[in-house]
Amino acid sequence: MENRELKIKAEQLRLRLMKLIYDGGTGHTGGDLSVLNVLTVLYNKVLNVDPKAPKKADRDRFVLSKGHCAEALYTVLNDRGFIADEELEAYGTYHAHLGGHPDVTIPGVEINSGALGHGLSVGVGMALAAKMDGKGYHTFVVMGDGEQAEGSIYEAAMAGNKYHLDNLVAILDRNGLQISGSTEDVMPLENIRERWTAFGWDVIDMNGDDIDDVVKTFENIDFSNNRPHFIISHSTKGLGVSFMENVAKWHHGVPKAEEYAQAVKDIEARIAALQNS
Fold first, then answer.
1. What are phi and psi of 235, to 5 degrees?
2. Omega before 78 cis (within 30°)?
3. pLDDT tens for residues 18-34?
């Protein structure tokens, strides 16, 4: 898929995501929107996955460590054919299959996630298993920046370096906000680049709001350099919805009817502009 198509796809998914949250009455809207570009590129350009064979042995592994942003993942998995339309539309209803965090009963989901700080450790295990078994698949883990306060992440960081896991890519959704405010007020993270470089990782800065840069970054990962890869995806919380952008209260929240209408208007205008460009 070419970049222009990916940009249109991301906006169409953003529109579908907002409908999912609005109709379902629940969602971590801000972080869903900030990570959606990365998920769009991964599932349409990067990952070797097949909805007809979700457990094929040579598939790439994807772990959404920030599992509270399940709505973004569900939207993308539905678009790729892993999740049926009727399952997606049931989100937020009683006895719905899709819950507030991903679980392994959902096709395309590798691990139960949502307890923050665990995803990278599991990703290290997956990547190490591939090395031990002589397999060529890659493992990708998406983490939140508020999640970086979890100590288990740094145990995984040391292990990733020790075992030279160049088949492992950790992506930090660096939108700067968490449920209780700015990450730098709650638990400062900077300098992230120096920290992860010191752990021995190949550290890459990426503009997560820019599809072109997301594509270029993934295309230029060196999977033969004997180092795990850490991508700092600089993003905007609530990306693409004017009144949500960089507003901490939208970490979790459902728009009211007039807010939802405004969000749809914002997104549809961009889709029209992209289609006519």
1. -135, 175
2. no
3. 999 999 999 999 999 99
